[in-house]
Amino acid sequence: MLAAALAAAGCQAQHTPPRDTTSALTPPRDTSGGFRAPSPYTEGAASADGTGRYYMGREIARVMDHRGAAWLERPERERTELPALVVENLDLQGDEIVADIGAGTGYFTFRIAPLVPQGRVLAVDIQPQMLSILERRAEEEAMPNVAPVWGAEDDPRLQTESVDVTLIVDAYHEFFYPREMAEAIYDATRPGGRLVLVEYRAEDPSVPIRRLHKMSEAQVRRELEAAGFRFVENRDFLPQQHFLVFERPA
Ligand SMILES: C[S@@+](CC[C@H](N)C(=O)[O-])C[C@H]1O[C@@H](n2cnc3c(N)ncnc32)[C@H](O)[C@@H]1O
């Protein structure tokens, strides 16, 4: 069934499982035709919840394990993250292809799906256990326009220029290959399409979230503009998080 959903999503390389995130590192795919640019990553001391891998001065956080999936559905998110307002601010018309990357249990996926009855939500995650939860819920709630997509750590496996809007909530800071992911998301976005990133505000010391799980606007802009995205705005309506809008120029 998961395979069918993957096929329905039109994913590329559907049968290649992503890297086991608990094992030793493997390099990303080589698309250079022989020439290898220097790695954009450096290694350093690892924080308690960090990987010891740095990108543009930021330590990449460790991936949230699927065994903590229930935490993603905690009721207080309604109050602290205002999910209804987040999806309202995606300004959806009803027929878009939306990618929810780092979808987890589908906390946002299942709030978006009813808003795009003529479209589809591609719920991308690297942990198959998360995709199983998503798939089960899509069946239980009869939401045929939710398609789980098994992404790789360096590639969300979405078709070129197929996505109208990508949403990434509280996940980008743990992408192990942020450069490759941002470039692949850019490629998957149709010209004029949008990317929305929701991350806890690193600028605000009163936000009670561990440091590596927060990002500043400046840092996000640096990383996504390097992949070609144009910064549009930071909508200031969430109590603790940025709502950063980017677009792929038309
Ligand atoms: C903290 S959870 C957030 C889940 C969801 N966005 C939410 O707000 O409830 C982060 C998720 O990102 C996923 N993730 C980490 N790296 C990823 C990558 N490179 N591609 C896709 N998903 C990734 C993890 O497996 C995890 O499910």
Name the features.
250 residues; Rossmann fold; eight-stranded mixed β-sheet; three-stranded antiparallel β-sheet; 8 helices; disordered N terminus; binds S-adenosylmethionine
Provide an overview of this structure:
Helices cover 24% and strands 25% of the residues. It is of the alpha/beta class and 250 residues long. The chain has one domain: 3-Layer(aba) Sandwich (Rossmann fold), CATH 3.40.50.150. The strands form two sheets. Strands 4, 5, 6, 7, 8, 9, 10 and 11 form an eight-stranded mixed sheet that branches. It is globular, with a radius of gyration of 17 Å. The relative contact order is 0.16. The model is unreliable at 3-27 (pLDDT under 50). The site of S-adenosylmethionine has 23 residues, from β5.
Which CATH architecture? Answer: 3-Layer(aba) Sandwich
Global Rg: 17 Å
Bound molecules: S-adenosylmethionine
Oligomeric category: single chain
Unreliable runs, pLDDT <50, ≥5 residues?
Answer: 3-27
Strand content: 25-35%
Brief sketch in words of this structure:
This protein is of the alpha/beta class and 250 residues long. Helices cover 24% and strands 25% of the residues.
Sequence-ordered SSE layout with sheet pairings:
Elements: H1 2-8, E1 41-43, E2 50-55, E3 58-61, H2 69-72, H3 77-81, H4 83-88, E4 97-101, H5 109-112, E5 120-125, H6 128-140, E6 146-150, E7 163-169, H7 178-188, E8 189-201, E9 214-215, H8 217-225, E10 230-234, E11 241-247
Parallel strand pairs: 4-5, 4-7, 5-6, 7-8, 8-9
Antiparallel strand pairs: 1-2, 2-3, 8-11, 10-11
Bound molecules: S-adenosylmethionine.
